[in-house]
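Sequence, structure tokens reproduced for reference:
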Amino acid sequence: MELHTIGRLTATALAVTALTLSACGGDDDTPATEAATPVAVDLLIQGGTIYDGDRDTPVTGDVGIVGERIVFVGKAPAGVVARRTVDAAGKVVAPGFIDPHTHANLLSADAATRLNAAFTTQGVTTAIIGSDGYGGYDIAAQAALMRTAPPGTNAVIFVGFGPVRQSQLGLTNAAPTPAQLDAMRQHVADAMCEGAVGLSAGLYYTPQTYAATEEVIEMAKVAATYGGLYDTHMRDESTNLKAAVAEVIRIGNEAKLPVHISHIKALGADVTGQAGDIVKMIEDEQAKGLKITANQYPWLASSTTMDAALIPSWALAGGRAAMLQRFDDPAQQAQLRAGITENLRIRNGAASILFAAGSAQYVGKTLAEVATSMGVDAVDATIAVLRVANQLVANFNQTDADVQAFMKRPWVMTSSDSSPGHPRAVGSFAQKYAEYVVKQKTISLAQFIRSSTSLTADTLGMVERGRLKAGHYADVVVFDPATYAAAATYTAPTLLSKGVVMTVVNGQVAVENGTATGAAAGRALLRARPASCPATTATAGTVRPAAFREEAHDDEGHDH
């Protein structure tokens, strides 16, 4: 079923919207004096402190929802009747948060995993998946799976440079032939036509790191043809940070598309204090016309796999089996040990590396502690641990001054980079509020909300989301400003955040009083199919006239 713009608003919702617009057409908050007949809404969030995603100054008022849409924001029209009313006095009411860089498993066969409670209990209603270049190029299949087994949050999907490259080159350190490059271009084009928001790359990770900049530019040009953007985990966030930022800028300028730096940071000993220099590089390019933005998680420790953190990239070529063979090759020991030693130095040493997830005998210990218990140095411990299995590690490698310097910029948005074993997976939005709005007062509440909602929606080209506005989809969070905070820590990384009174996803209550309700109201939010794409008989969802289309749901209003 093809529906356009506000296609699923019921007659009641349209009536309420029209009434509200006539009542609040200017700056006057005066409600309609009377309605011809009482107007019904499904959910009335009453008397909250409303931050709409744009304005710096909140208003005290109401939000009315019918079906999956917001029908008024401000003072409720006279005579409104609600099936359910929530008292939000003293609470913050905001657009549902949008996380632009996640590893959420919204395609899981497990229904509880798909609910994504770690996100909804923070007020996150949309998660971007396919991050770090890991997303498959089968966008239509992913969207179809979400229709059959819906997630708890909405999903925006990137096509990943990794699978695109691996389809032709596997895990090898090699350049593509012209024919292989054409095949890779076709994968990106197909993914964009199926609704991907853009191309994501993780040039830090093997085998993506083996790609020359020119190869990435060729893929980004395809995404640009279809109106997409380029998202990246940069090639280096540490010693060669400035060169990596320069590469992102080059890709944007030569491919002629917006670029987005994920989890921007100054990582490790060599670049501590360089946030200001990076900000200047980016803002100089913005002044020249390049659209460049970034996201950031509000933690001082990063998280990645142990091999990616400590093993030199040349030793990872060919995958795990090839790496283990190099561990046993006497001819490569000097070079291997030197590379591990250098990576340990960059990452502030073995005492700054905490095992976050993986083998039980290591989790919760630092690499220094494991090395001591083995009676070996940190290099030998690294090799010994990786012989058992790869591990997820948290690495304390950033300063609070650098984190705050990035956070203050108006083009940096909130993200989680969610991964197991790190509190960022369950508490990033709540942590940013509690630590940097309330405790340190680094940013205002309005800036926190904007950087978690409308800025992200605008960057990704999402329409009718990211703001509290009549006619928009009803993605809403209500939280208690006195208690909203992360509960997770580095040693207890799975504790869910506290302080969310209610999270609403597409008009359905997903969280109530801090507890997930079990509602799976999320859907794939696919980019509109460009006219330049080949004709297809498949219909992936509701075509949006602007940037996105919504996956079709059999939900006419609220009678279902």
